[in-house]
Amino acid sequence: MAGHPSTYEPKYAATRWLDQRLPIIRMSADFMVFPSPRNLNYWWTFGGILALCLVAQIITGIILAMHYVPHVDLAFDSVQRIRRDVPFGWLLQPMHAVGASMFFLAVYVHMFRGLYYGSYKAPRELLWIIGCVIYLTMMATAFLGYTLPWGQMSFWGATVITGFFGAVPVVGVSLQEWLLGGYSVDNATLNRFFALHYLLPFVIAAIVGLHVWALHHVGQNNPIGVTPKTKSDTLSFHPFYTVKDAFAVAMFLMIFAYFLFYQPDALGHSDNYIPADPLKTPAHIVPEWYFLPFYAILRAVPDKLAGILLMFGAIVVLFVLPWLDTSKVRSMRFRPVARGFFFIFLFFCFVLGWCGAGNPDDIAVPIGKGLSFYRVSQIATIYYFAFFLIILPVLGLTEKAKTLPDSITKSVLGDTAVAAAE
Amino acid sequence: MKSIFTKLALGLSAFAVVTTAGVAYAAGGKNEHKMEHVHWHFDGPRGTFDRAAVQRGYQVYREVCAACHSLDHLSFRHLGDKNGPYYSDDYKNPSDNPYVKSFAADWTIEDIDSETGDVTERPGVPADKFPPIFPNDAAARASNGGALPPDLSLIVAARGGGADYVYNLLVSYGLEVPKDLKLTAGLHYNPVMDGGAIAMAAPLLDGQVEYAPTEINDHGEVKIVPAPAATVEQMSKDVTEFLAWSSDPKMEQRKSLGFAVMLYLLILSVLLYFSYKAVWRDVEH
């Protein structure tokens, strides 16, 4: 929380000298004893997991960049060379590719946690918005990175996504050509995508710095959403949450390791093992799994520009969420109606992902004449937007929340124990 | 606390189900033909390549497939790499491996005479890549009725059904052509192929290769084993095993490291769990 007194005492002349000039040890020491709500559950461990993901992606990425060749004739072969001949390339290349999926898995858990426990509400609006900027930058980075192996899905995915810009009225075509460095996805595109893919992770790291700074200014939210009031409401970050985070990280790494070692290709598409061929369009162009819900929203309307606007709208709506949700109660534990709508929302996010992987014309639900993926994605898209634009604003005004506990300590120990302690 | 664990588990399994379903959906086409699932030696977390099958598969590739299909991403030396089909403990450097040398010498490599600058030909050495079969794509198409024979080094990874797809494609020839399918000249019916029409004629016939009753083990020793009958199914299985190795030659290293990593993480998790319990012992939360 803001303004908790620093307890760091420099012990040596050198650390005293440093402390008066650049109190960097003091900052780290204060972070370690940062008062954290005592009731944080495992959903709160994903922040640390995400930090680890970012570091892992940057380290593996830098090593891959030493061996990768960003040229249309050589890129595909250079990735194969990394996997076959570069020492430990067979480990690093899949670690980077699977790592991207794991990064998104963790960020989605982190975001749904924020959504459920109202972590975007005052005073954490900026913390949430900075998080949304990180997510947006992550999406850009992942898209650029997926282009680099220069397989069929890389090439055609890049063609589809950059095509969005062509739909912008008036300047669209010029904008698209400017982005591509030509009339179509080609060597110039690959070169700039590589340069930007190398740049953006460091931008993410910088924004993560802001995210952590904002977090330490306003303090963590917690499962009951009641602001800590007394000392007994919080625990020192170390050792209580360092050990809890470490345990969660180890569990997460097991999932990571399972995919990395036993199913390295399960999260990718087999077509990306075919070198890019500008003359041959794959039967189905599908993005990576973490973009599938947005892909479904894009294809839910027949008009290209409208689809693109809806897709971007699906992310923009997250930015204004702190002002759409009118309820003063943070945690959905105390909002039984909103809680129900939240789980329906979660369900429809999965449905959108499912629709994104499907062929729009195919039958998804065999009821009556059968619902096509196209129709199902329309229903899910309507719910997605209705949740943010109608349900949350209205519920906040009409819903009667359960009574909130007076304090975190009370909710943990019960009234009698608190009385006894006093 | 338990409920949080349950929720986490539920959440993750939901994710797993949805992604697997999505991936499976994205991978599968609309094909009526039922593909046979083969129990591959390399299936499962401890699965390894069947060394003898990969050796036989290389023979099938060399004697049959190599007439049209290249192996762009393989060098001869890869045959003698750790976990490769002709690896020998006595030749850690595959370039010294006599089997690898003789297989390489079996191929003709185009080179430039450094004195005259003329294009010359010489026998291959382990450091050479498998040479292209045709000088360029246009030549490949011209020799194959307009169709381009795909490179095979990644074929198992590059097809949705993986090894099963390649095996089924090879054995699904000579079936009755559906009435509504119009085959133009130079195309053959194969239900595994998308659309049912393939330019490649049935590549394998029973007894097309002659399997030697030998297997070469990790020490480069020749073991006498009964040679399997060279049926279309057997040759298809063998060449698919070889191509599966070619797609993912580091699979065995990866799986064995994976086992160690999983074990390490498991022990670490247990230790961290008890550390967590110890640190939080006196704290109600």
Question: What features would you highlight for this structure?
Answer:
heterodimer, A: 422 residues, two-stranded antiparallel sheet, two-stranded antiparallel ribbon, B: mainly alpha, 6 strands, globular
Which term fits the overall shape of chain A?
globular
Helix content range of the residues of chain A, please?
A: 55-70%
Q: Output the helix-strand order of chain B.
A: HHHEEHHEEEEHH
C-alpha-based Rg of chain B, rounded: 24 Å
Question: How is the secondary structure organized here?
Answer:
The complex is a heterodimer of chains A (422) and B (285).
Chain A: H1 13-21, H2 24-32, E1 35-37, H3 46-65, H4 75-84, H5 89-116, H6 125-147, H7 152-166, H8 172-180, H9 187-218, E2 234-236, H10 237-262, H11 292-298, H12 304-319, H13 321-324, H14 336-357, E3 363-365, E4 371-372, H15 373-398, H16 408-413, H17 415-421
Antiparallel strand pairs in A: 1-2, 3-4
Chain B: H1 2-27, H2 51-63, H3 98-105, E1 108-112, E2 119-123, H4 137-143, H5 162-171, E3 188-189, E4 197-198, E5 214-216, E6 222-224, H6 232-247, H7 251-279
Antiparallel strand pairs in B: 1-2, 3-4, 5-6
Helix pairs in contact in B: 2-6, 5-6
